[in-house]
Amino acid sequence: MKISKKMSDVGTAIIGGGVVGLAVAAKLSASRQSVVVLEKNDHYGMETSSRNSEVIHAGIYYTPGSLKAKLCVEGRDEIYSLCRKHDIPYKEITKLITAADASELGKLESIYNNGLKNGIPLEIIDRRATLKLEPNIRTVGSIYSPLTGIVSAHGLMDYFYRTFLEHGGTLQLRCEVIAIEKLSSVYQITVREGSEESTFTSDVVINAAGLFADKIAALVGIDVDKAGYRQFFAKGSYFSMIPSKAKLVSRLVYPVPKDEGLGVHALIDWGGRLKFGPDVEYLEDGTFDYSVAEEKRSAFAESIRRILPGIVNGDITPDMSGIRAKLQRKGEPPRDFLIVHEKERGLEGLVNLLGIDSPGLTSSPAIARHVENLLS
After folding, report:
1. Domain 10-51+154-230+334-375 class, CATH top level
2. What DSSP designation does 368 have?
3. For the residues of 235-253, what is the DSSP string, one character each?
4. What does the pLDDT read at residue 4?
5. Helix (H), strand (E), coil (C) string for 143-157
6. Among 123, 147, 367, 370, which has the minimal tally of Cβ within 10 Å of its Cβ?
7. pLDDT for 242-286, tens place per residue?
8. Contact 356, 68 (CB under 8 A)
9. Is residue 254 a contact partner of residue 263, using CB atoms and an 8 Å limit?
10. CATH number of 95-145+232-326
11. Buried b (16+ CB within 10 A) or exposed e, 150-188
């Protein structure tokens, strides 16, 4: 149902042109008039959305009943469908979660049972069956996930962007939101474009600003610390394997997780390169630095040897990194996605999306539908 234009300049303003913002734009523009995406960078998807493993997660690890579990499963199926229908590059590459030794088998079974509770088809296979699939890995047994794959993040974002444009939407690049004020039934948004500042009004505001979503929430007057909206930044670096050893595995191979994150895992990128990552490095000072430190090589190689025991330090080279926004501090338990229509704060028409880390890419089309439902 199309919303009526009140005294506002646009119907819906979406702040952030990452994969989630674009997915929301594609969804809402199909039924709502005058949808605009405001993106501060030179192009859409330049931050977290283009600096990740590009994995289509099956939904194995997430707490049953959580938004992460629900939206990951829904989004996974929808992404596969979109890829087949619209020629978005993807591979149903499958995945193994391997126990390096007998001490990890209990945790492996716990992960397996959690995945089953989320409705994921999984199989526990023994050492012999695992080595038949991946003869070079360290294993005493593993979980086989047939629904895990990889997708071109850029291809997926391009599809959402094209769909958004076809529905009459507008993308405004190099457009930074610097102020938001609630005025009776509309929001007044001030943006900076180069040295110019301008103001317009919108009936609905979707905060999909990724790394800066808590700052956008604060602009509206929300106390982000009191609300539990403060985001913390975790950098994840990747190392790539030398070409002569790039065929050591043929699918995604994950260790049994130990600390934060899912552990340094093996993945194959679209150029056929074998890469490993990400690690988890909290950025205490909030400074974004995408360089990959050479000093990480030794620790990375040691982590990789949990999967591939024959690797030496000289086999890997620094590759890329990404930064994820998390709602928990270092050492705290993982938190769920936070997707809230702020009606109870007197902010009808404002939806905040915070802590959209993994599986945000996989969940993106389902997140878009969830946002649409919150506004209906």
Report:
1. alpha beta
2. H
3. EEEEEEE-GGGTTS-SSEE
4. 37
5. EEECCCEEECHHHHH
6. 123
7. 999 999 999 999 999 886 667 789 999 888 889 999 999 999 887
8. no
9. yes
10. 3.30.9.10
11. bbbbbbbbbbbbebbeebebebeeebbbeebebeeebbe
